């Protein structure tokens, strides 16, 4: 239980790599963390909130307000609650929004409210990853103090082979455990 008592916000974006987020979430919970999932609307096209809710034992947050109840999902409270935010997978679109303060969805608004460290795990095709605008946005996020979890090289969903694959859930888990091991409370 290496993450016992830790509060993690897991941000999920609209990437085919979102299927890996279920495994990552399961690892965090098995290690004792309490996890709140925040997913973009396009992320829900790749993995369902029901799956994520079952794994986290918490409702998944995607919108600012509950559709039927009118309940407000407070990004401010999440920013105060969390010990760490992990955005995995992070698409080029979300990375660009995070780097430029475009808070037009619950995930980016939550990110901008975080008082804790943020880890970002890019996931995209090789040419998108190498594009100068994406490179600049990642550099900007890094300059803000975000921890960039460099993507792996390998087979991509497009059939191409190269850098852009989201780090495997086990490797991200170890980065998170290492992060908390270095941080003495």
Largest sheet: 5 strands, parallel
Query: How many β-strands, per DSSP?
Result: 7
Distance between the termini: 17 Å
Low-confidence stretches: none
The largest sheet has its strands arranged as 2-1-3-4-5
Q: Specify the helix fraction band.
A: 40-55%
Q: Name the average pLDDT.
A: 93
What is the overall shape?
globular
Characterise the protein shown here:
This protein is of the alpha/beta class and 185 residues long. The protein has one domain (7-179): Flavin prenyltransferase-like (Rossmann fold, 3-Layer(aba) Sandwich), CATH 3.40.50. The chain has 8 helices and 7 strands; from the N terminus they run βαβααβααβααβββα. It has helices spanning 18-30, 49-56, 75-81, 92-100, 106-113, 126-130, 132-143, 169-182; strands at residues 7-12, 34-39, 84-90, 118-122, 147-148, 152-155, 161-165. It has a 5-stranded parallel beta sheet, with helices on both faces. A two-stranded antiparallel ribbon has the order 6-7. The relative contact order is 0.17. The mean pLDDT is 93.
